[in-house]
Design a protein that fits this description.
CATH class: Alpha Beta
Strand content: 15-25%
Helix content: 25-40%
Oligomer: single chain
CATH superfamily: LigB-like
Shape: globular
Radius of gyration: 17 Å
Structural class: alpha/beta
Largest sheet: 6 strands, mixed
Mean pLDDT: 96
CATH topology: Protocatechuate 4,5-dioxygenase, Chain B
Order of helices and strands: EHHEEHEHEHEHHHHEE
Distance between the termini: 12 Å
Number of domains: 1
Low-confidence stretches: none
Number of helices: 9
Length: about 260
């Protein structure tokens, strides 16, 4: 079985798990995603919510959950997702990336953040597939993240899901806005992003900040970088992109992609 590559939106904090009405499209999408792709032996999550000076991989056998959101109901902090880690896979990836001149660290103490457990609780609710996370790099350099994806594709991975967990729009100040002119800005950026990804144009993705209204949609680009890792991985293996999510989320147009 081949590896799967998917970039998803994980929504606002724990709201998808809580059944928030502004997340209904996303909840339906994530709840059906696991049925639409081959069941993996492990999931590798690149989450927008973990940054380190160099790429770092969770290597604990039973990582705890990190409730890295604030101001939500108490039930948000009682969520359980007891997926196992996969120390062997973490070491395999570390060694493979080192062979491709990547400095990579392992972190046996780090838990799973909500960029992992919120979507996966909907995608694989039984929590019966081992998971590891790979961090972003604090420099937030898009080219470095595309190269990380390329290097990851050269590692001997079998039957895994590469899951980029972020958002194609991430300006929290303007979510749920009633200002149509701001929604129009997001539409123009979203259209640009869809074209860049569907045309496998990595140069455009590297220079994403030149896209229409890019810095309005992403004042800080950490939620876009998991997409860069996925696109780099897919490019190395000549996988074909597919638009799999094209809906408004919290009032803004957003996109998700897979590569096959």
């Amino acid at each position: 079985m081949a590896n799967s590559v998917v970039f998803i939106l994980h929504g606002g904090g724990p709201l998808p798990i809580l059944g928030d009405e502004n997340h209904l499209h996303l909840i339906h999408f994530l709840s059906n995603l696991g049925k639409s792709i081959p069941r993996p032996k492990a999931v590798i999550v690149i989450s927008a919510h973990w940054e380190e000076p160099v790429p770092t991989i969770t290597s604990g056998a039973k990582p705890e959950l990190i409730y890295d959101y604030y101001g939500f109901p108490q039930e948000s902090y009682d969520i359980k997702y007891p997926a196992a880690g996969n120390p062997e896979l973490a070491t395999l990836i570390q060694n493979g990336l080192k062979q491709n001149a990547k400095t990579v660290l392992l972190d046996s103490a780090r838990g799973f953040d909500h960029g992992m457990f919120v979507p996966l609780k909907l995608v694989y609710p039984e929590a019966d597939i081992p998971v590891i996370q790979i961090s972003l790099q604090k420099d937030l350099n898009p080219e470095q993240h595309i190269e990380l994806g390329r290097a990851l594709a050269k590692v001997s991975l079998e039957d895994v899901l590469i899951l980029g967990s972020g958002s194609s729009f991430h300006n929290l100040k303007y979510l749920m806005t009633k200002d149509n002119s701001l929604v129009e800005k997001a539409k123009l950026f979203n259209h640009w992003l869809q074209q860049a990804v569907m045309n496998s144009n990595l140069d455009e993705l590297v220079n994403w900040a030149d896209a229409p209204h890019a810095k309005f949609c992403h004042p800080r680009e950490e939620h876009l970088l998991p997409l860069m890792v996925c696109a780099g991985f897919a490019s190395e293996l000549n996988l074909a992109p597919e638009l799999i999510y094209d809906e408004n989320l919290m009032g803004m147009p957003m996109s998700g992609f897979s590569w096959n």
